[in-house]
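Thread: quick sanity check before group meeting

JM: Hey all, I'm pulling together slides for Thursday and realized we never actually wrote out the predicted structure for the chain we discussed last week. Dropping the sequence here so it's in one place. If anyone has concerns about the input, flag it before I start.
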Amino acid sequence: MLLPYLCVILCFHGVISQTSRALSARELDSLLQDYAFRGLVRPKTGIVYDGKVPSNLTGIGVAALRLRSGSLWLRGVSYKEFHIPAGVVEQPYVERLVLVYHNLGNWSSLYYPLPGYTFLAPVLGLLAYDAADLSATNLPELDIQALGEPISISFPGVQSGHSLMRAMCAYFGFNGSVQFKSVVKGNTCLTTNQGHFSVVVESLAAPPPAPRGRGGSRGGTGGGETSIGGGKGRSKRMWIIGCSVVGGAALLVLLAVIFAYVKRCRHRKKIRRMEDAAELGVPLPMTVVRFTKVPVALQTRTRPLLENEYVP
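JM (edit): ok, ran it. Output follows.
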């Protein structure tokens, strides 16, 4: 009887824990990896395949490109806005890898909020995955490094009307930090790692606080950089973790109370069955011994016999 109620309680707790937090940038990376791999149906090496995202993420572009590690090392590749030169290696080593491309479009400031700055271009991402299983989800990223010339990202759609002397390349890290570096040739950023990148400029007036915490991806830069920590995102994650711990503890206490109640009810039922069995036994006649009624047997089961019938 209690099992359906327990299932309802567990489902309700799961729904609360899922809806209590927004989709982070790292979770978005995992989701886009899934949709990018879905576009790789009988893929050919070196061909770019655009993926389709669900309607609730309309405006985000995703694509996948499968390559041999040896080919990437020897020749490099030009992929959307990214130019990857020869001499790029991945860790750990795989025979084939898939480069997943992100273009967050008008979702850029939502998943990568940057107070005090204005985006001149959408956030672009490049993440590498193992191509051994194209149906896999939640894959860990490979760590790619440019050992020779850096990887360049061109932003042809940089908005006009801003002084390019103040424009900076923004590199978003996994831990929510942001690193800045100077723009090259007006609209190009350089990096030695994979990650998410954009071109920004300082705002004259600080924008209102963003509704979601910052998550991120790796990005490598050279010297002369400044960093901004993701304190607000960390405090939100700590609050979510605290609520989850309290909710889990409350659920464990509730389950313990229910278990004790069920055990007590079973014990009472067992005692009642024993009493009923006792009442159904053979009734014995009662007799009065002084002031107390006690049961007596009419006769014994075995009659006593003398050991020796000779009586002197």
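AS: nice. The chain is about 30% helix and 25% strand. The radius of gyration is 37 Å.
JM: adding both to the slides.
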